[in-house]
Amino acid sequence: MCDMCSSPEKVYKIEIEGTLLNACEKCAEYGKIVAKIKKDEPQIIKQRESFDFVEHSRPNKKTTTIQMIVPNYSVLIKEGRERLELKQEEVAKKIAEKESIVHKLESGRMKPNVPLARKFEKFLNIKLVEEIEEESLSNIETPSTTQTGSLTIGDMIKRR
């Protein structure tokens, strides 16, 4: 049976966007013909082939390191400053930042970016940046990397 139009005729094995399908002669023109199916195959094999249309490859895992600011950054900055017995103004001068920035960070009204957090880490000898490793699958195609450049049904489905 044709996997595209459900015609009982199954003549070709075709490839469309990396997927192998059993197709009739009419539907075969929509993809690249990989093989012609022999008509004298036993019925059991024909039934199995209708499900055998996707080639699976093991995805390659890539690790990405993400830098995140710890949630209790304001407490750590304030305690670090107090441990050194310095005022906000003194800390600001030593790290070449405005006093208002130090105040906003200690009060939690401003979250530091990674370079600013690194300045405070170095000066106050505290840990504000966590590095988290995230695994991603490298051989999954995204809409921007499809070979044809056109939108597919898979591009429209939300993945969980």
Kindly describe this structure:
The protein has six helices and five strands, in the order βββαβααααβα. The protein starts with 11 loop residues before the first strand and ends with a helix. A hairpin with a 2-residue loop joins strand 1 (12-16) and strand 2. It has two domains: 1-56, no CATH class; 65-133, 434 Repressor (Amino-terminal Domain) (Orthogonal Bundle). Strands 2-1-3 form a three-stranded antiparallel sheet, with no helix packed on it. Helix 3 packs across helix 4 (99-107). It has 160 residues and is an alpha+beta fold.
What keywords describe this structure?
2 domains; 160 residues; alpha+beta; 6 helices; rod-shaped; 434 Repressor (Amino-terminal Domain)
What profile does the largest beta sheet have?
Answer: 3 strands, antiparallel
- Count structural domains: 2
Distance between the amino and carboxyl termini = 32 Å
Give me the CATH architecture of the largest domain, please: Orthogonal Bundle
Radius of gyration over all CA atoms, rounded: 30 Å
Structural class assignment: alpha+beta
Tell me the helix content.
Answer: 25-40%
What's the order of the H and E elements?
Answer: EEEHEHHHHEH
Please tally the helical runs, counting DSSP H or I stretches of 4 or more residues: 6
Question: What is the number of strand segments?
Answer: 5
CATH topology of the largest domain: 434 Repressor (Amino-terminal Domain)
Which class of the largest domain in CATH terms?
Answer: Mainly Alpha
Give the mean pLDDT.
77
Layout of secondary structure:
Blueprint: E1 12-16, E2 19-23, E3 32-36, H1 43-49, E4 61-69, H2 73-83, H3 88-94, H4 99-107, H5 114-124, E5 129-137, H6 153-156
